[in-house]
Specification:
Number of domains: 1
Mean pLDDT: 91
Number of helices: 3
Largest sheet: 5 strands, mixed
CATH class: Alpha Beta
Radius of gyration: 13 Å
Shape: globular
Distance between the termini: 30 Å
Low-confidence stretches: none
CATH architecture: 2-Layer Sandwich
Oligomer: single chain
Structural class: alpha/beta
CATH topology: Nucleotidyltransferase, domain 5
Length: about 120
């Protein structure tokens, strides 16, 4: 299964970014092969619609689940429409987040946990 994790960098040692739509990168991790790749979030600096654009990009990558710190209403709506499971509240390294996910320590969220524009102005 492919999992996308909002990330501050391009390695498994990078930190989980608390912002889904405005994180600089996503780590796309395959739980079956333990391989990963990174994808630049080209919408991270968008004036508006970053969550929607990011969610559309992730849904086009055949990802089944998303792990992030927080998820806003627009990104939540797009990911849910694509039947992508969302897990928020993650922190620490990408590697730690993957291990917690594999152990079932995250609960799937049923709605957004921050307001629109949560990540604007934060780096």
């Amino acid at each position: 299964m492919k999992v996308a994790i909002s990330s501050s960098g391009t390695t498994l040692q990078s930190k989980v970014d608390s912002r889904f739509g405005r994180c600089p990168y996503y780590i796309i991790y395959d739980t079956e092969t333990d391989n990963f790749e990174h994808a630049e979030n080209k919408s991270s600096q968008a004036m508006g619609g970053a969550g929607i654009q990011a969610a559309q990009m992730i849904s086009n990558m055949n990802v089944e689940s998303v792990i992030t710190g927080n998820i806003g209403p627009n990104a939540f709506r797009v990911l849910s429409a694509a039947s992508i499971k969302i897990y928020s509240g993650a922190a620490g390294s990408i590697k730690d987040a993957i291990e917690k996910f594999k152990k079932g320590e995250y609960k799937q969220v049923s709605g957004p946990d921050v307001e629109s524009h949560f990540g604007m102005g934060r780096k």
